[in-house]
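Hi there,

I know you've been waiting on this one. I reran it after we fixed the sequence typo, so this is the corrected version. Both the input and the resulting structure follow.
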Amino acid sequence: AREPSVVLTDTAGTRLGRIVAPDVAAAPPGQSGLHLLEDPYEAFAARALLAAAAERTIDVQYFLWHADVVGTLLWQALWDAANRGVRVRMLLDDANLAGLDPVLATLDAHPQIEVRLYNPFVQRSGPRTLAYLSDFGRLNRRMHNKSFTVDHQVTVIGGRNIANEYFGAEGAIGFADIDVMGIGPMVGQVGTEFDRYWNSASAYPAAPFVGAPPAGAAAALEARFAATRADPAARRYIEAVRESPLVHDLLERRLALQWAPARVLSDDPAKTLDTGGQREDVLLFPALVQAMGRPEHSIGIVSPYFVPGEEGTAALAALARSGVQVRVLTNSLASSDERIVHAGYMKRRVELLRAGVRLYELRPSVAEAALETLKVRGRFGAGKVAGLHAKTYGVDERRIFIGSFNFDQRSARLNTEMGVVIDSPAIARAMLQAFDEVLPAVAYELRLGPDDDGIEWVERNAGGAEKRHREDPETTWLQRATLSLLSGLPIDWML
């Protein structure tokens, strides 16, 4: 009983429509206005302020949404918008929603909110891992897309899920991530992609799965909102967000935008049901390679999970040998939140280094002095351990891709992904320059050991002095042994 719906486009008269209209009208034809969101507090503020300004419609699409401070505050932002009469469409991948059925049922019961679950689990109680035993081929394919679009006037897409660790709230880990906020033609492209997923065969109305909310559910949810806002940790976070420069720039209408051609790319949702993996026409990756163009001078890849596989390793090695500067930043074993994925990467490191590819791995505990000097402390928020979650790809200081696509086999073949290719030398150059200016302070540089044997991790302090490690830093022998064992198994296709 899936009723199709489409994005509302008659929104020029909304508050956001009136605000962006002069800039869009004055822009070069076909170009979008872009603002990069690297600071986690600004990334939250952008979503919260846009939701507060909404008058007609909000469309959100996410892989993960936690019931923590950030997740609850954004639920309230959508709930408050719906109470003002705004139509809210929430498309959520079902893999990470265990235990949230009561909240989803309450949201979905609101007359202005519709929730759909992407590729849902039929089993709603007990360990979800059991469901994989009977339906692995389908459930192993997830929707990893992330977008937040308000009144068909402003959109935010990128790498962030909705949870504390992506937006600088207090927690055990703080992810460095990146989104891009856009106005102009880019917004319509995101709307088209959202509708394609919303009306796809894998997007199901939530009600038959999550059930009806109990009596008094709406009042209970609002009480939950109030309790969250009264929590000291939430109050500290809200205050930090209020101090972010983005809030003041938006309120004073002086937010800096960069104008450039921007092309939104996405997997076809048919990829989820193509369990045979035969249809190249539904995949994002070939379109991304074509849109970025063949590198002539340099490539910069930032990916938290980097599993190039045999073909990808050969391609990057060939580029490096041809004289193209190839640099990759990924998580170290100690900073990764998905350590099993490291097994598909670690066996490729020596081959890549021998070909001339430069590899960097994020340090989980980066030097505070260096972060303060480089003004990148805010990228990790309040987490005690730094982690990498950004996914960007720059070519020749000309084009840059920002989105949800990890450079691993799962993103290429199993999950659906989306992102935007920006044709802007200024933005691409800034990303590539970060390898020179920021990485020495926050990452280990990997080098071949003496006599071309093994790997050394080179750590630099704020003064430039080097410390060398002969094994994955800040890890135990058991972690290293386990990953070494896993790296010998033929499991790259699912990492």
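Quick highlight: The two ends are 35 Å apart (CA to CA).

Best,
R. S.
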